[in-house]
Design goal:
Elements: E1 4-11, E2 20-27, E3 31-36, H1 43-50, E4 58-63, H2 72-78, E5 79-82, H3 94-104, H4 109-122, H5 138-150, E6 156-160, H6 168-184, E7 188-192, H7 196-202, E8 205-210, E9 213-218, H8 220-226, E10 231-236, E11 247-249, E12 252-257, H9 261-272, E13 279-283, H10 287-301
Parallel strand pairs: 3-7, 3-8, 5-6, 6-7
Antiparallel strand pairs: 1-2, 1-4, 8-9, 10-12, 10-13, 11-12
Bound molecules: adenosine-5'-triphosphate and magnesium ion (MG).
Length: about 300
């Protein structure tokens, strides 16, 4: 069974324009699926549909085989959701909030207390556990909201920009936690983010949205090939030397190659031609390269 599926999922808020258009994809169980795209692309809308907070205009979706629209309670019991705006009871302390939400998710009071303590410690909020949530800073609230999403040990975790507003140290801790959850506990994480560098380290699969449409999906290799991003060989030689067939980029001459094995042939070739190689490097495409290439293609097509 897939963790998440969407079939021709469509959402219009105003009945005229589509915030999401015929979205079809599958997210396998386990691992982190990075859901990427510019502002307004439809990421939050997708999360809201998958968690039953919104009804689709047409199409279907499922989470662990269940429809969020038909069986919202069952889906909520399996899912943890963290949205952009953390909602906590301002007059309750961090710990009271977690114990409360743990109990509403079906834990007994002692289970909820135990989970709350583990999460407060893990998210570095133990020192602030008795402070009212209304007095938390943005980053502390963000971490408390993540703790709330995790309190009932969900199988699928929807995280909408979990590290926005966090300082670098907290962001790193949250990313490590997400990665550990997916690796050790087999949790499926659906992660909406703009932080492409973190996403590349964390995610096992990707979905790239643009103006409500899925323009690329799959593992890194797949989206990379689809975007036509290649590995490049970069060669630095004498300043006056010209390398035919290469493109100059700063001090380096670059050429697309199909695999790293081609590097050896390029170096042999240059040596045979008596061209001095001062430095040679492989340039692998990054998620950022793939993202911008896909977005550029869409903009050109319009
Ligand atoms: N409640 C709403 N009412 C009307 N339109 C909405 C509503 N929420 C979102 N939209 C519209 O739907 C589209 C998709 O918005 P959505 O919030 O899903 O984008 P996003 O990918 O999450 O963007 P961001 O990166 O800025 O969070 C946008 O055009 C937005 O204006
Ligand atoms: Mg959003």
């Amino acid at each position: 069974m897939e963790a998440v599926t969407a079939l021709n999922l469509q959402k219009s808020y105003d009945g005229k324009t589509n915030a999401l258009e015929e979205l079809t994809f599958r997210v396998p169980q386990g691992g982190v699926c990075g859901f990427l795209g510019p502002n307004g692309a439809g990421k939050t809308t997708t999360v809201k549909l998958l968690t039953g907070l919104l009804r689709p205009t047409s199409g279907e979706c499922s989470v662990m085989g269940l429809s969020p629209q038909k069986e919202p309670e069952k889906v909520h019991a399996l899912c943890g959701v963290m949205t952009e705006t953390a909602r906590m009871y301002q007059n309750m302390t961090g710990q009271q909030n977690l114990v409360f939400f743990g109990q509403t998710a079906g834990l007994t009071q002692s289970q909820a207390k135990e989970r709350a303590e583990v999460l407060l410690r893990e998210l570095d909020l133990w020192g602030a556990r008795d402070k009212k949530a209304g007095r938390y800073s943005t980053g502390m609230l963000q971490r408390l909201s993540l703790a709330r999403a995790l309190v009932h040990e969900p199988q699928v975790l929807f995280l909408d920009e979990p590290t926005s507003g966090l300082d670098p140290e907290s962001a790193q801790a949250v990313n490590e936690m997400i990665s550990a959850l997916a690796r050790k506990s087999g949790v499926t994480v659906f992660l909406c983010t703009h932080q492409l560098r973190y996403a590349q380290d964390l995610c096992t699969t990707y979905g790239l949205l643009y103006q409500g449409k899925l323009i690329s999906s799959g593992d890194f290799q797949t989206i990379c090939e689809a975007a036509g991003c290649h590995i490049k060989a970069g060669i630095r030689t004498e300043p006056e030397q010209i390398l035919h067939g290469f493109v100059k980029n700063g001090d380096f001459w670059e050429i697309d190659i199909a695999s790293e094995e081609e590097m050896a042939a390029i170096l042999r070739d240059l040596v045979t031609q008596d061209i001095p190689v001062y430095e040679a490097r492989l340039l692998r495409p990054t998620l950022e390269d793939v993202y911008f290439s896909c977005i550029r293609d869409q903009e050109v097509a319009q």
